[in-house]
Amino acid sequence: MSHPSTGPAGTGPTTTATERAPYQYLALAIGALYLLIGLAGFLVTGFDGFAEHDPDKSLLGFHVNPLHNIVHLLIGAAGLALWRTRSGARTYGWLLAIGYGATFVYGLIAVNDPDINVLNINGADNVLHAVSALAGLAIALWPDRHRDRAGRV
Length: 153
Prior knowledge:
Blueprint: E1 5-6, E2 13-14, H1 22-45, E3 58-59, E4 62-63, H2 66-82, H3 86-110, H4 123-141
Antiparallel strand pairs: 1-2, 3-4
Helix pairs in contact: 1-2, 1-3, 1-4, 2-3, 3-4
């Protein structure tokens, strides 16, 4: 692993592209997982019933529909696009925290109302959305540690 070099006067250490923070790998893992979930969701739903509430369409206990699958694909693609830099990963963390936090609240209301449940959310989805929001906070707020030239924190 390469070590940070000293940046311009007063800016502190810089990092190379190969030095990744743990939260960047978390962003990559979550992005890849959501991308796979989005793709697998289409195997269950096809493209029919785009925004319908249909409890019979579920993937591993999570209700899905094509709109829900597209959201998963977008969240996954964002993770894959943003994980490479620390600031990008942090941005992805905030997107997860705010987006899935809001989706969790929406899901609490929509789970029992098929007329407004356009994402086909169920209780398992609500738990996953809460966990995803917390993971986003972890990515966004994970402390950075910089190593000196001797490899010390």
